[in-house]
Design brief:
This protein has 322 residues and is an alpha+beta fold. 20% of the residues lie in helices and 36% in strands. The protein starts with 7 loop residues before the first strand and ends with a strand.
Length: 322
């Protein structure tokens, strides 16, 4: 006996079972009266199942997720899908167009949830995205990169004490899983309030695609969909085991100068190991940078010129028992 699946309804659009539909969701107008809309793709399966949300560019210049989502949708066949996948490859359209992390009023969209339909542009956009997308999802994967001037090793960030999210993080199997408590006003906090499990994937740097970051994202998402019984096949790539970091620390510049790293993303470091230096403009060493503990390199600054107090190297402390 065949399962009956109804058409999926979103923002006035009807998506038939076993089909995909791309459309735009009007968000706000610019002073010129030009409408800014969210691009949305709904892939509605032939069979019943959960709803998975995939979103990127909440910070407009963090664009790896755009290419990740494109490759995922290209591989998905709605006739062989159980459930529904809602894809929003660019949430902060204004930031994406202006190569900026923020909205025009300087607000961070990822600190503006749950939002309000009477607030600022950031608040209104957060409200729209929450009500039209997040509240419809059982699970969400949110794609990010490092912020400007930094780059991240491929990692899943989640609250290790939230068991369902932690379980999915292990299934995703990024090289790193980093413990991260929810931040006030973030999309992850908003998703948790709606009983939606959410993973944040961080990899690479702003304003450019990184092929390895994208490939790891695509493979991880298909592993998650397989665990959720939405698809029947995993990617062909071999699944590795994640290094789990229950604690991380940014090492900051002890003085101003020229930063030179002796390590790279993903490297294992020892306690008190010299992992970099700060030199003067002529190359004479001013101070060495040592690791505060044995761990793995999570993120790194890409700017050689640094001021005292700048964040330089992000070290994660591994927990082998998890």
């Amino acid at each position: 006996m065949k399962h009956l699946v109804s058409p999926y309804l979103l923002a006035g659009h009807s998506i038939a079972p076993g089909s995909q539909k791309n459309f735009e969701l009007p968000a706000f107008r610019l002073p010129t009266q030009t409408m800014i809309s969210l691009p949305i793709s709904v892939i509605h399966g032939q069979k019943p199942g959960p709803t998975l949300g995939l979103c990127a560019a909440i910070h407009g210049n963090e664009i790896n997720g755009i290419e990740s989502i494109r490759r995922i949708t290209e591989k998905l066949d709605p006739k062989n899908l159980s459930g529904t996948v809602i894809c929003v490859p660019v949430v902060n359209v204004y930031g994406f167009m202006s190569d900026s992390r923020y909205l025009p009023d300087g607000r961070d969209l990822n600190r503006s949830f749950p939002g309000s339909n009477r607030g600022s542009m950031a608040s209104r956009l957060a409200f729209l995205f929450r009500t039209e997308v997040i509240e419809r999802c059982d699970h969400v994967i949110d794609f990010h990169t490092a912020s400007s001037g930094k780059k991240n090793h491929p990692q899943i960030r989640c609250d290790l004490t939230h068991q369902s999210s932690f379980n999915l993080a292990k299934v995703f199997a990024a090289p790193l899983i980093v413990h991260s408590k929810t931040i006030s006003g973030s999309l992850r906090e908003c998703a948790a309030s709606t009983d939606c499990s959410m993973l944040v994937y961080e990899s690479g740097e702003p304003s450019r695609f990184n092929q390895r970051s994208v490939q790891i994202a695509v493979e991880g998402c298909f592993r998650v969909m397989r665990r959720l019984k939405m698809v029947t096949k995993d990617p062909e790539a071999k699944k590795g085991k994640s290094v789990i970091c229950e604690e991380t620390r940014w090492i900051r510049a002890s003085r101003s100068g020229i930063f030179l790293s002796h390590v790279d993303l993903g490297d294992r470091v020892k306690n008190h190991q010299i992992i970099g230096s700060i030199n003067n403009i002529f190359g004479k060493p001013l101070s060495n940078i040592r690791s505060p503990y044995a761990g793995v390199l999570v993120g790194i600054s890409t700017h050689p010129s640094v001021h005292q107090g700048d964040a330089l190297i992000h070290i994660g402390k591994q927990n082998p028992s998890l």
